[in-house]
C-alpha cells in the first residue's frame, strides 16, 4: 500500500502583505467610521480613568503630583545650577506652564503606544476602528492635564502674577499640541504591534525628550539660526515657548517658528494616521 502524501500549508500569520501594506486609505470614510464609534471611545476613556485611579488614596491628585514634583526639582536644582533666564517670571511658574503640555504629551505617547497590545482581547471580540484605543488614552491624558492646570491658578495667586490677555491664543496652541501628540501616538502604537522593540524605545525617547525640549529652560538657549530646524524636528519646543509667551509675557506666538511647528504637527498627524490605517488589518492577528 502506497502512503498518500498530504501537503499541509501553515497559514500566514495575519493578512497578506499586499493587503496589510497597500490598503487604500480614505480619510473621509475612516473619520466617518470613527465618529460612529464615539460612544465606544467615551466608554474606553471612562474605563481607563477608573483603572488608573481605582483604589488609590489620592485619586486624581496623582495627575498633579507628577508635574509639581518636577517643578520642585527644577526650581531647587536646575535653576540654581543653570540660572536660566525666565524673562522676569517666577521660575516655578516658568517651569510648570511648560510641564503641563509636556506631561500630557509624554503620558499620552507612553500609554497610547501600548494601547493596541493591551486591548488585543477586546479587538478580537468586537469590530471597531482600532484608533479608538489610542484615542481613549490620549483623552485620558488630556483629562489629567486639565486637572493639573488647577495648580497654575494657585501659582498665579501665590506670586501675584496674573495671566496676560494674550492667553486667548492658548486654544490654538492646544490644537497644534494635540495634533502632534495624536500623530506620534498613532504611529508608535501601529509600529509597536509589528516591532515590539518600540515599547522600550518610547520610554527612553520620552526621558531624553524632557532634556532636549525647553521645559526647564527657554527656547532662547538654542541659536537663532538653528531654531527653524529645531522647530521642524521637535514641534513641542516652539509650542511650549509660545505657552510662556502668551500666558506669562503678554506676547503673541512667535509666528515664524509656530508656523513651522504647526506644519510639522499636521504632517505627523496625517502620516501617523495613514501608517496606522494601512497596518490596521493585521493588528488583531499579530498583537
Biggest beta-sheet profile: none
Intertermini distance: 46 Å
H-E string = HHHHHHHHHHHHHH
The structural domain count equals 1
Average pLDDT across residues?
85
Helix content: 55-70%
- Quick one: how many beta strands? 0
Q: Roughly how many Å is the radius of gyration?
A: 22 Å
Structural class: mainly alpha
Poorly predicted sequence stretches spanning 5 or more consecutive residues: 1-15
- Measured by DSSP, the beta-strand proportion falls in under 5%
The coarse overall form would be globular
Count of alpha and pi helical runs: 14
Describe the 3D structure.
It is a single chain. The chain is mainly alpha-helical and 287 residues long. The protein has one domain (27-47, 56-286). Helix content is 67%, strand content 0%. The chain has 14 helices and no strands. It has helices at residues 17-21, 27-36, 38-53, 62-82, 91-112, 120-123, 132-148, 150-159, 170-194, 198-212, 227-233, 236-247, 255-279, 283-286. Helix 3 (38-53) crosses helix 7 and helix 5 runs antiparallel to helix 7. The longest helix is centred in the middle third of the chain and has 25 residues, at 170-194. The N and C termini lie far apart (46 Å). The relative contact order is 0.15.
Brief account:
By secondary structure, this protein is an all-alpha fold.
Topology overview:
Blueprint: H1 17-21, H2 27-36, H3 38-53, H4 62-82, H5 91-112, H6 120-123, H7 132-148, H8 150-159, H9 170-194, H10 198-212, H11 227-233, H12 236-247, H13 255-279, H14 283-286
Helix pairs in contact: 3-7, 4-5, 4-7, 5-7, 5-9, 5-10, 5-12, 9-12, 9-13, 11-13
Amino acid at each position: 500500500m502506497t502512503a498518500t502524501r498530504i501537503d499541509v500549508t501553515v497559514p500566514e500569520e495575519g493578512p497578506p502583505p499586499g493587503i496589510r501594506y497597500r490598503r487604500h486609505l480614505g480619510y473621509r470614510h475612516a473619520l466617518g467610521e470613527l465618529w460612529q464609534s464615539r460612544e465606544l471611545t467615551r466608554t474606553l476613556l471612562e474605563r481607563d480613568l477608573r483603572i488608573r485611579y481605582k483604589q488609590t488614596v489620592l485619586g486624581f491628585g496623582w495627575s498633579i503630583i507628577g508635574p509639581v514634583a518636577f517643578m520642585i526639582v527644577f526650581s531647587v536644582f536646575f535653576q540654581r545650577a543653570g540660572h536660566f533666564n525666565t524673562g522676569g517670571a517666577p521660575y516655578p511658574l516658568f517651569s510648570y506652564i511648560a510641564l503641563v503640555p509636556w506631561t500630557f504629551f509624554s503620558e499620552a505617547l507612553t500609554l497610547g503606544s501600548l494601547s493596541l497590545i493591551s486591548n488585543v482581547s477586546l479587538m478580537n471580540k468586537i469590530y471597531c476602528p482600532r484608533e479608538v484605543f489610542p484615542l481613549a488614552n490620549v483623552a485620558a491624558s488630556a483629562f489629567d492635564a486639565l486637572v493639573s492646570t488647577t495648580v497654575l491658578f494657585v501659582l498665579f495667586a501665590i506670586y501675584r502674577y496674573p495671566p496676560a490677555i494674550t492667553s486667548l491664543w492658548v486654544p490654538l496652541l492646544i490644537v497644534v499640541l494635540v495634533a502632534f501628540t495624536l500623530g506620534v501616538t498613532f504611529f508608535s502604537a501601529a509600529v509597536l504591534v509589528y516591532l515590539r522593540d518600540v515599547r522600550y524605545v518610547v520610554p527612553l525617547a520620552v526621558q531624553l525628550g524632557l532634556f532636549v525640549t525647553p521645559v526647564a529652560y527657554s527656547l532662547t538657549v538654542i541659536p537663532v539660526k538653528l531654531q527653524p530646524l529645531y522647530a521642524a524636528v521637535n514641534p513641542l519646543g516652539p509650542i511650549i515657548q509660545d505657552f510662556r509667551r502668551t500666558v506669562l509675557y503678554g506676547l503673541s506666538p512667535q509666528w515664524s517658528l509656530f508656523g513651522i511647528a504647526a506644519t510639522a504637527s499636521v504632517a505627523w498627524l496625517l502620516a501617523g494616521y495613514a501608517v496606522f490605517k494601512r497596518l490596521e488589518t493585521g493588528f488583531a492577528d499579530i498583537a
